[in-house]
Amino acid sequence: DIMTIQPDGEGLRHLTEGHGNDAFPSFAPDGQRLVFRSGRDGRKNLYVMNRDGSGLRKLTDGQWTDTMPHWSPDGEWIAFASDREDNFEIWLIKPDGSGLRKLIGGGGRNNHPHFSPDSQWIVFTTQRAGYSAEEISLPRFPQPYGDLFAIRLDGLG
Fold first, then answer.
1. d(C-alpha 104, C-alpha 46), whole Å
2. Is the pTM of this model over 0.90?
3. What is the DSSP letter of 4?
4. pLDDT (tens digit, 9 = 90+) per residue, 140-154?
């Protein structure tokens, strides 16, 4: 579930409850809405809601996994990882659901996108350059990526 709490520890509030593995919330820069991943309908897609939990709206809809969303600091884009074309790749979508486009693919299990403060770059994890030593040092909990890469929002960097 997704909850909010004030910095002083007061005001714990459930924004989602129940089944569906609601996770990975990211607030819009104005703090009024958030995007998150949910499996509430049996598939993992992205949803947007108001900061009080009202106004729930499905942002993506498909038989794939859309996950790890991050709202750009300028409020224009939401970056996320998706396996909609087999491997996890980095995608962009406007908060209103328009403008869907793949930013980077090509294998490598790209995941965990995060915008730069100027909204011009996205840093992400990948196994493009190989695996980390984590698989040896933590054999029960390996992460299938080992490096950070960055790409410009226009895809040219």
1. 19
2. no
3. E
4. 655 556 688 899 998
